[in-house]
């Protein structure tokens, strides 16, 4: 659906309780979307909704649990009649360590959230978009700059983000008969909690073993990029959008 259509568009945003997901949810609400806020922490979701007037539906959801994901999309359709966009955003950085140090539990928990959770949400959104009248919709997967170039000591996270690229391309192909498009946004160094945890502003670990203070950019600008992707007419799609802080060590990292 495009902005000229009368009915408000409907977006589901996972990981909407913080970071990029929170910023995207608030931007879409400000733009007049009906937004379904999904995440594990109900209180954080309500904080997201309260900061921006607009029609928001809060649905606590653990994306690693199939029943939670099915309930999320059932409630979205029950409340608004359809799903136009999924911003598939919920994720975790996972364990830090070289590949010999990462334990199986840390690996599996990262895969469960970043990859399996993204698959479950995309699959449920796809089914809803395929069944609705008129059929169609848009899935936007949140990849990462690490889908292109990893940070040191991040094998679990990096592997899942490379896999998201394959998931994105597969959904795009599968969705063509039904008017369902899929694109990916890869973001580098927004001003969010995860960047603080990585020490980006104080000295992030580089490939050569040194630490370097890296530039960041406002998360609201990343949200604006997602909103642009979401608002395109049905006839257009962005397959991949890479947005980074100007001057961050990405090309030739370290």
From TrEMBL:
Give, as one word, the top-level EC class.
oxidoreductase
User: Which GO terms of the molecular function aspect are on file?
Assistant: oxidoreductase activity
Q: Name one Pfam family in it.
A: adh_short
* InterPro entries xref list: NAD(P)-bd_dom_sf, SDR_fam
Highest taxon of the lineage: Bacteria
Keyword terms: Oxidoreductase
Instruction: List its EC numbers.
Output: 1.-.-.-
> What does the sequence similarity comment in the record state about its family?
Belongs to the short-chain dehydrogenases/reductases (SDR) family.
Q: What protein does this entry describe?
A: SDR family oxidoreductase
What's the source species for this entry? Sinomonas halotolerans
């Amino acid at each position: 659906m495009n902005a000229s259509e009368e009915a408000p568009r409907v977006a589901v945003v996972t990981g909407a309780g913080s970071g990029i997901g929170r910023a995207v949810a608030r931007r879409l609400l400000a733009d007049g979307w009906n937004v379904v806020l999904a995440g594990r922490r109900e209180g954080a979701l309500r904080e997201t909704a309260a900061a921006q007037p607009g029609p928001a539906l809060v649905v606590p959801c653990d994306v690693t649990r199939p029943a939670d994901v099915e309930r999320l999309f059932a409630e979205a359709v029950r409340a608004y009649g359809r799903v136009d966009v999924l911003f598939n955003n919920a994720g975790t950085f996972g364990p830090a360590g070289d590949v010999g140090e990462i334990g199986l539990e840390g690996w599996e928990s990262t895969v469960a959230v970043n990859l399996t959770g993204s698959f479950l949400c995309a699959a449920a959104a796809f089914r809803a978009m395929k069944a609705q009248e008129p059929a169609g919709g848009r899935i936007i997967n949140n990849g990462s700059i690490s889908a292109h170039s990893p940070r040191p000591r991040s094998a679990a996270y990096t592997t899942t983000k490379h896999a998201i690229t394959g998931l994105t391309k597969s959904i795009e192909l599968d969705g063509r008969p039904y008017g369902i498009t899929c694109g990916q946004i890869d973001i580098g160094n927004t001003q969010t909690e995860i960047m603080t945890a990585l020490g980006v502003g104080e000295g992030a670990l580089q490939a050569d073993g040194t630490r370097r203070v890296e530039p960041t950019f406002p998360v609201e600008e990343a949200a604006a990029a997602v909103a642009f992707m979401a608002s395109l007419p049905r006839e257009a799609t962005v397959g991949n959008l890479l947005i980074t802080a100007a001057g961050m060590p990405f090309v030739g990292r370290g």
